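Sample log: PQQ-dependent sugar dehydrogenase.
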Amino acid sequence: MLASCGGDDDGGSDTPAPAPTVSALPSPTASASPAPLPSPTATSTGAVRRTNVATFDNPWAMAFLPDGRLLVTEKAGTLRLVTTAGVVTSVSGLPAVAAGGQGGLLDVALDPGHAGNRRVWWSYAEAGSGGKGLAVARGTLTIAADGRGSLSDVTVVWRQDPKVSGDGHFGGRIAFSPDGKLFVTAGERQQGSPAQDLTKTLGKVIRLNLDGSVPADNPFTGTAGAKGEIWSYGHRNPYGLVFADDGRLFESEMGPEGGDEFNLVRRGANYGWDAVSEGSRYGGAAYPRHATNPAVAAPLVSWTPVISPGGMIQYRGTMFAGWDGDFVLAGLTAQGLVRVRVTGGGASEVARIPLGARIREVEQAPDGAIFVLEDGAGGRLIRLDPA
C-alpha cells in the first residue's frame, strides 16, 4: 500500500474524518484544459555527484538567502540557518507550532522585497477551536554576529477556515506572483468534499495581497458566501507551487491510491477533488476520471504508481545540461527527483534522478547547483552537481 499511496505515507492516516454537510455551489466556467499527456517510460540517469552538507530532524522546506546561506524548516517547529559548509544555527521568534503527523512547521520563503525589508514568510499548522489548521505568517529576519537568527514584527497574515481534527493534508506551499501577490496551497485536511465548498478554505489555492487583504479581482469576491481569497479549488494535498518564467502558475499534489497530479492552475478553476481523480479509493474502486466531467480541469501529468511529490522548482540554468526550463519535483515514494517538461499547453515526464531516499524538498542554488532535503529523522541536506 505504501508504494501506491500518494504521499500519505509521510505521516497520518488517509481515513477521512466525517465530512461536514456542504451546500452545492456553482462551478465557474473553466477554460478548456489540455488532455493529460501519458508519461513516457522514465529515464533514470544517476549522473549526479552528491555532497552531504548537514543533517536535520524531519526537515520540510528551505530557501536560499542572498548571502548564500539557507533557511531550513523542521516540522517540530524549529527554523534553522545553515551555511553551505554545514554550520547550523537556530532562528528564534516563531509562533507556537502544532506538530504531528503531516503538520508542523512547513514552508519558508523570502519576501519579494527581502533585499530591502529582510522579511521572511512561513506556513505552519496551528491549534485552535475545532482542531488544527494551516496558517501563514511573516516576520523580519535579523542575523547576529554569532550566526544566530531572530524574527521580529511577526504577523499572522492568513488562517485556514475551518480548523478540523486530524494531522493530515495541510498543503502549505508559498509562492509569489510576478505582480507581487501571495499564493498559498491549502490542503483539504482529509475532509474530502469540502474541497468543492467555496465557503471553506479546505482544498484550495489562496491568493492574497501581501498585507493579507483579498484582491478585488479574485474570482469569487462577488459570489455570495464564498471565501474571497480562493483562487482555485478541488485540490487534495498540494505540495508544489511554482510561478514559471512565463508567468503561469503550476502546482503538484498527492493523489489517493494513484493519481498524483501536475497541474496548470487557472483563475477560478475546479480541479475536481473529491468528485473525480486519476486515482482510486484506498483498497477500492477507481474514482470517476477528470475526462468524465468537462467542467473540471484535468492534470497535465498524472502518476500511477505514484511519485508522492514534495517540493518543486523550475530549473533555470546551464549547470545541468538540457534541464533549463524543466520542472523538477522532489519524490518521496519515487526516492529521487522527477523532471517534467512543459511544451505549450501540455507536459510530460522526461527523466528521473534516483537518489535512494525519500526526497522532501528541492531548491536551486544561486550557482545553478541543486540542493535536496531528505525526509524524516536524520534527513540530510545534500548538494547535487553533475557527475
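Observation: The chain has one domain: 36-386.
Observation: The two ends are 34 Å apart (CA to CA).
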